[in-house]
């Protein structure tokens, strides 16, 4: 089974009036930094914060009356759960969402607040999925797969119809890949409308399941990633052949680039993106020469990032840019030494955030002490001038690079 442009167009007609079109915006500052022209498709602007609403809604609207009456079931600990719950409730369809037992309470509560019955089962996603299929069979429920379903994939493909309607001359599309539903649907539509467009899929380096499957390798992936939305261990039986046929290239990006993409979208574009939502930009930042001078479309697939993780990403980005640093400064253990250090830093334009005065545990002479100072600074150049000024004043100074 596969899908074609007619399926994507049928999905677009089906969801019309049920789902608002998401914006397409030019990202001029990001494009200037990367040396290309960038347009962003803001799938993080859906009600539940991700593109998953497209596929879930198309699937739900395609059900027969008897299936709607019986209800639906899905397995998900993330965006798919909320998408199914949201639109099933809106359409008057009973929904059950099976989540692994380790799912954070906030996600459970959010899904229940959208009207779903949540069942916690199993220690792994595979356990939850098996239980969901068993429950579907026992209760006569229709299983709504997160990606390996033709109606779901066709629904996700409507994002490409909208994108190319607004920016028809895109050279390249950068699309995140987890199980492959989004890229399968979008590639189907985009290649049919413009066979010359280059489709590049993006996976996180810890979960390169699609890359491995395309190469005929055994799947070997796992680990903690900021891009949970694409941390999928098995591509779909429907999506894999479509990706093999229509996608020009699949690349992988590491955690550092994914963090940078989330940071850049937030600080330069004023957009909140989850790790998976920033994957397309991460790939571009990882190899800008590949896209130099091109007109690139990037799908910001979701914005459901934990606020604590986002706060850490923003702080780490400031450290990376040299706008927050920690300096270790050697001083004599004598009255007035610390006040002189703080005066010099203030005169040099640094704002002191925290000071740690250490006499006992560092390997320093008994008549010396070390001060760790966390500072707000302008940039890396400012940091280097601060360090030079402190050394010229007789205070040995080192940049501590393990700030996180």
What do you see in this structure?
- The protein has 404 residues and is an alpha/beta fold.
- Helix content is 43%, strand content 19%.
- It folds into three domains: 5-47 and 154-316, Rossmann fold, CATH 3.40.50; 72-140, 3-Layer(aba) Sandwich (Rossmann fold), CATH 3.40.50.1100; 322-400, 2-Layer Sandwich (Alpha-Beta Plaits).
- It has 16 helices and 14 strands.
- Strands 1-2-10-7-8-9 form a six-stranded mixed β-sheet, with helices on both faces.
- Strand 4, helix 6 and strand 5 (117-120) form a beta-alpha-beta unit.
- Helix 1 (5-15) crosses helix 8 (150-166), helix 3 (52-62) packs across helix 8 and helix 12 crosses helix 13.
- Keywords: Lyase, Pyridoxal phosphate.
- Its cofactor is pyridoxal 5'-phosphate.
